[in-house]
Amino acid sequence: MLDEMNEEYNMITLSIPTRKRIDFVEISDLVQKEVSRAGVSEGIVTIYVPHTTCGITINEHADPSVADDIIMQLTKLVPYQAGYRHMEGNADSHVKTSLMGSSETVIIEGRKLVLGTWQGIFLADFDGPRSRKVFLKILRSEV
Amino acid sequence: MLDEMNEEYNMITLSIPTRKRIDFVEISDLVQKEVSRAGVSEGIVTIYVPHTTCGITINEHADPSVADDIIMQLTKLVPYQAGYRHMEGNADSHVKTSLMGSSETVIIEGRKLVLGTWQGIFLADFDGPRSRKVFLKILRSEV
Amino acid sequence: MLDEMNEEYNMITLSIPTRKRIDFVEISDLVQKEVSRAGVSEGIVTIYVPHTTCGITINEHADPSVADDIIMQLTKLVPYQAGYRHMEGNADSHVKTSLMGSSETVIIEGRKLVLGTWQGIFLADFDGPRSRKVFLKILRSEV
Fold first, then answer.
1. d(CA A72, CA B106)
2. Strands C103-109 and C112-113
3. Which of B70, B118, B139 comes nearest A95 by C-beta?
4. In the predicted model, what is the mean pLDDT of residues A116-127?
């Protein structure tokens, strides 16, 4: 029983609403909030998306044009239609997801995510709008 | 001596045969089997490919057309021949590998890999067919 | 006080000079040196770049043509100019960074990085030359 409660505590689930078909939503503050709540001072956090048409990427959060440019260029490289075999109208979303990746790992020091000045963590939805899940798993270190 | 035995226990090596030059082979069940055997209830597993023409990606496993589409589109973006300098006939395989990445990290909860409904873990061979190695490293958590 | 000293010890910062706008610099030996110094026998190391125009990739280090081919092909896919909205002249660098990713995780066994024969860890600068930081975070395992 206690063990099961621990399990629940251990992995954190975020629900992130997205607003259009292709949408980058910054989740840095939400991740930081959970790291603070967990009370872990030193370690790493794995940020994992359990979807196949939605990934994670870290890039500039100061100028939203950067996310726009990533989206524009990914769409040139992997167009909405390109003779795909997958027949659900979202084959491009799957390909883009593999290019971005399903997870990122960020270091925790002094209870803070160690992000560069310009870095933000983005949920990269390629088949929205909908509610997406992000799983967080924190590992303490003790060197 | 014991320490060496521990080391061997610690990192797990899978051998995965691939069947053609570009081949996505799902390894989710093999990874789950090793996680179960290790008896780790909560943590993460790093899935690492020690090759330079073969990567790892997570994407849909229900419809094999998705892997076909990823392969088709990657081959349009990084053709077999494109004036490459590397002279071993597999320069494209190296480039594709860097686009997919050499590892993935998956969360373990209740002795199970936490994968989304549609997610499978794929070895993405870009220079097969041959036998490929995949290294698994499990880290327990104890928040 | 001791705790703060531990924190500092915990995350390691490398400073890597790059030599041109797009430059892949192998950092495998520098990472190995820090793993040896930390005295961690079994675990993982997360190699994290806190920049948004510079990533990390693992690929062949024996023939430098491989890095050249990755750079050439990435530049075809994401040209220096392509009608980007981000106005700082490095929009392409941001897009390339998301394609490569901001971190890699490598396994440690017997105090050594577990790299394949041909694998090297590369800092992939897309907006140099300058001095770049790489953060290393080592997590011990104890299965």
1. 29
2. antiparallel
3. B70
4. 98
How are beta strands B112-113 and B54-60 bridged, if at all? unpaired
Domain coordinates in residue numbering, chain B: 2-140
Q: Is residue C131 helix, strand or coil?
A: strand
pLDDT beyond 90 at A4: no
- The complex's ipTM works out to 0.93
Residue C68 φ then ψ, to 5°: -60, -40
- pLDDT tens for each residue of A26-82: 999 999 999 999 999 999 999 999 999 999 999 999 999 999 999 999 999 999 999
Q: Nearest by CB to C97, which of A59, A63, A99? A: A59
Contacts of C4 (CB under 8 A, 6+ apart): none
- Candidate from C44, C115, C143 with C-beta closest to B38: C143
Q: Cα separation of C46 and C117, whole Å?
A: 20
First to last CA, chain C: 31
CA-to-CA separations, B128 to B22, B90, B131, in angstroms, rounded: 6, 10, 8
Q: How far apart are CA B31 and CA B36, in angstroms?
A: 9
- Start-end of H helices in chain C: 2-10, 28-38, 65-77, 91-100
The residues on A that touch B, with CB distances below 8 Å, are 3-4, 6-7, 9-11, 38, 40, 46, 48-52, 77-78, 82-88, 91, 94-95, 97-99, 101-103, 105, 133, 135, 137-140
- The amino acid present at B92, given as its one-letter code, is D
Residues in C closer than 8 angstroms to A72, CB to CB, are: 83-85
CA torsion angle A75 A78 A82 A87 (round to 10)? -100
Q: What is the pLDDT of residue B10?
A: 81
Please report how many Cα atoms fall inside a 13 Å half-sphere around the Cα of residue A121, on the Cβ side: 26
CATH code assigned to A2-140? 2.60.120.460
**C25 token code pair:** 């610099």
